[in-house]
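Researcher: I need the complex structure. Ligand is adenosine-5'-diphosphate. Inputs:
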Amino acid sequence: MPKTFDHWKLPAALAAGLLAGGAAGWLAGGRVAAGVALVALAEIVLLLTRIRHQARHMMTFSPSAQSLKHDRFMTRSRRIASSLRDLRSAAGSLPDAVVLLDNEQHVRWFNHAAEDLLGLRRPQDRGAHLDERLSTTELAGWLKEGAHEPLNDVAAPGHPNRHINVTLLPFGRRQRLLLARDISHLTRLEQIRRDFVANVSHELRTPLTVIHGYLELIDPEDVPELAPVLNEMRAQSKRMGQIVEDLLTLSRLETQEHVQDERVQMTPLLATIRKEAEALSQGRHHIAIEATADVDLLGSVKDLHSALSNLVSNAVRYTPTGGRITIRWRRTPEGAVYSVTDTGYGIPASHLARLTERFYRVSSSRSRESGGTGLGLSIVKHVLNLHQARLEIQSEPGQGSTFSCWFGNERLLAQGASDPE
Ligand code: ADP
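Model: Output:
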């Protein structure tokens, strides 16, 4: 019998450790850590059940098994097994789908939410190869490619009209834990928000055009006493019109999944951007171009023009008179970088992470005075995302800023080569 007792100690210690781990994970808000601990505990329940059977078997054959010591052992063992059963059932009823996979991606265990969201069935899917089981879905491709990054906003295999975020976590000895969270309500809310903004902007467009048109008809010289009022009304209606146009551009970019693949000729584009910057600067800045990359871009001419010139227009608007603005186009080992460096006001580090949010401004008055809508950098970010490029911002208050757009090799075309099909 002491042998049985020793067997009991190990899983009990493990259980206590994992219980603590689960609780700590839960308290720390780490639902994933708690989920892992819960599944591990479920495994231990199975182990303890086996030990209990063994103890019962021994009691039947050994008269000494009737002793008080073994009664205590049985009581404790039953208590632990019951707690572990509760924990296993808690893991089973988690709202997120949990699937425990072995090192070859065979399904070892899954909870009720996995049946619902992923369409897994008991008992036939126990032991099934998960990527074969989900073979026709986006999830299977992701699993085959190694599932290194979380997969966001995909159709749930068990419910094609629901959306899920999926993560694959290493667990135990070369095992994996697949977690899927239903985000359908968030996707729906996001869609409602997008439709609302697009509809409001669309509805505002016509009345604004009418107001703007009438304001243009009235010549301030005909009514000199109203001239300051008229000029202010014109400026504000123009600003509103620009906000509406920017919101409509953002709505379009948000719903768009791909861009048209056209050749974006960089030499003429850089020349146009420079001309636009000079017109905006009205001779107040020194503007230079340093283009050393002899490559063009592959993407949308209209959207890239808007994004790249927006960075230059910001540089002009946020650099005091006499400042320097340098536009660069250069190769890197991974592709090419378009950057705009200014010697302007700069941006404190605490604002950098939020600059691409809609209507986020470091200084609202400065943005308004310079004719900003607060949407420019959001548009830049969306355009770059559609071209698999990223925006990097470096800035030093009082010294200036550099906004860089990093494009990968797959977006580059040799200058002079034939155009994409
Ligand atoms: P806005 O229309 O207000 O310029 P953006 O989205 O283009 O909107 O920029 C967001 C904010 O980022 C701006 O309001 C400004 O505070 C800051 N910003 C952008 N570019 C620069 C720059 N080159 N130098 C300093 N601040 C900048």
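Model: Summary of the prediction. The pocket of adenosine-5'-diphosphate is lined by residues 314-315, 318, 342, 344-345, 347, 355, 360-363, 367, 372-377, 401 (CB under 6 Å).
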